[in-house]
Design a protein that fits this description.
Length: 181
């Protein structure tokens, strides 16, 4: 029989404290999904981003970005969700059943971090689209498996509450990104 690693949280926390720790991790995961959405909303009209991605130009008279290729701009955003998060959700479900929820969440988090770094280094729209798909896969893994993990560990009377809190934090992630911007 498998033994639980000595580094596992179950050795440090019990019952309610363990449940709170699990839901804090889950909430943070969903919060950053919303944060990513909010950040990209602000980035889409920034001067340097519009120039680098070549879908518009900067109008000095108005001090705003003028989008010449709205389909390209929308495409950069859309590939994050389809095929990115959709494929990631399938991968997350498969890996979650085969490898376990915690390992799958770690995989999704690492995947999303690497994807975010690739997005930050993008020098043209092709690079950015590939980076958005890559990041979307990591986010899809997290969005598919994190609520499952949180609800599986919760008492049956509080499962709905935890899922509601997680997705409320998604909205708070968007709000935090807009506020920081």
């Amino acid at each position: 029989m498998d033994q639980i690693s000595k580094y596992n949280l179950v050795h440090k926390y019990e019952k309610r404290a363990l449940l709170i720790a699990i839901n804090c991790v889950a909430a943070l995961s969903i919060f950053f999904f919303g944060y990513d959405q909010g950040v990209m909303g602000g980035v889409n009209t920034s001067h340097s981003y519009v120039d680098i991605m070549s879908f518009g130009h900067w109008d000095d008279a108005t001090g705003q970005a003028v989008i010449d290729k709205p389909t390209l701009q929308g495409g950069i955003n859309a590939v994050y969700y389809l095929p990115g998060t959709l494929l990631g959700a399938f991968v997350g479900g498969f890996c979650g059943d085969r490898c376990g929820r915690i390992k799958t969440i770690a995989l999704g988090a690492l995947w999303a971090i690497i994807g975010a770094a690739i997005q930050c280094s993008a020098q043209d729209y092709k690079w950015m689209m590939c980076a958005r798909v890559f990041t979307g896969i990591g986010t899809g893994i997290l969005n598919a498996i994190t609520p499952v993990w949180a609800t599986e560990t919760a008492e049956y009377t509080s499962r709905g509450q935890f899922v509601s809190i997680e997705f409320t934090l998604n909205i708070f992630g968007v709000v935090a990104a807009y506020w920081i911007e």
